[in-house]
Amino acid sequence: MENKTQSIVIDHANSTIGVDNTTHAESKPIYLDQLQAKTNTNTKKHKNPFYAYFPKFYVNELKTARFSLYAWTFIFLCAISLTIAAFVIVLTGEKRDENWLLLLLYIIPSLVIFGIYINKIISFLSLNSEAKTINFSQQKIISINIIKIYKKLKIANINANWFCSLLYSICVAAFFIIVLVAWIWGTYKDVSGNPMTFDWKSIFSGFSTNPIHIILVPTEGFYVYFVTFITVVVVFFLTIIAHIYILTNSALRISRIENYYNSFIVSPDEIANLKKSTNRRDMVIFLVVNVLLGLIIYSLIKAKKQKSK
Questions:
Q1: Checking DSSP bridges between strand 6-11 and strand 16-21, what pairing results, if any?
Q2: How far is the C-alpha of 162 from the C-alpha of 243, rounded, in Å?
Q3: End-to-end alpha-carbon separation of the chain, Å?
Q4: What is the reported pTM?
Q5: Sign of CA dihedral 256, 60, 133, 137
Q6: CA–CA distance, 300 with 102 (Å, rounded to integer)
Q7: Tens place of pLDDT per residue across the chain (309 aa)
Q8: Which of 4, 155, 215, 292 has the fewest Cβ atoms surrounding its Cβ within 10 A?
Q9: Torsion-angle region of residue 24: left (phi > 0), alpha (psi -120 to 50) or beta?
Q10: Which residues have C-beta within 8 Å of that of residue 309, sequence separation ≥ 6?
Q11: Can you tell me the distance from the alpha carbon of 137 to that of 163, in angstroms, rounded to the nearest whole number?
């Protein structure tokens, strides 16, 4: 029988480590640099010396937080740009004193977006600061930020359903507000210079003789209506995409966290109570905003009736 011995061979000169199987076959050294290449590369990219031990879900959460911050920065800049553009268009238009209501369709969402943007900045800075010191090398740590993320993900579908439904209703209401503002103030004129009379029945039969036509077709002096309509349509379809993305992405992220810890990191009772309170809060916000939108539309119709007298 062939006698085999095995020993560890370390080549200090060439920084190699290998296994010598003594059948006196030629050993194939494994370079330490090769073994540590990935770890060293990851560590250089991050200030935390234990970055190589970060679980996959935590690395993904860092990437998600960074991407979310970039996305909301872009959304915030777009909202500010559209609001400024609306101000300029209204101030330079023919009915600057009468089209102020349309600015609310830009100002209010821009304030909401600003609040969300600030929250995203705070969340990113908190998680990024934690990532510089957290150590997963010896135990599965559950930090405060991980718990916050887990709770947010558990109620993400509830928030998405309520707030996306709210955005759908806002978009529909915004369209009617655009039409009502045009109808009330007699903004539109035909080729003879006479104010157009809005007629719901003529939307399809007389497309070029009612406010819907100029809302859909940019007309000199009334660009604010066209820009607002395009904005509403874009927001509506982006909301649909965001709704689907949030539902699928949150489920995937929850699965990654639970698979790593092999358990729920927050008790089911606490999650159940959190879902109930979130549902109540979102329902109240949804109802309040829709009531306000209803009151705006009602006041516009009432103003039209008073002007007609």
A1: antiparallel
A2: 10
A3: 115
A4: 0.67
A5: positive
A6: 12
A7: 444 444 333 344 443 334 444 444 444 444 434 434 444 444 455 677 778 888 999 999 999 999 999 999 999 998 898 888 877 777 776 555 556 666 777 787 888 889 889 999 999 999 999 888 888 887 888 888 999 999 999 999 999 999 999 889 888 888 877 777 666 555 455 445 555 554 545 444 444 445 566 566 665 656 667 777 888 888 899 999 999 999 999 999 999 999 999 888 899 999 999 999 999 999 998 998 888 878 877 776 676 556 555
A8: 4
A9: left
A10: none
A11: 40
Token duo for residue 185: 């103030």
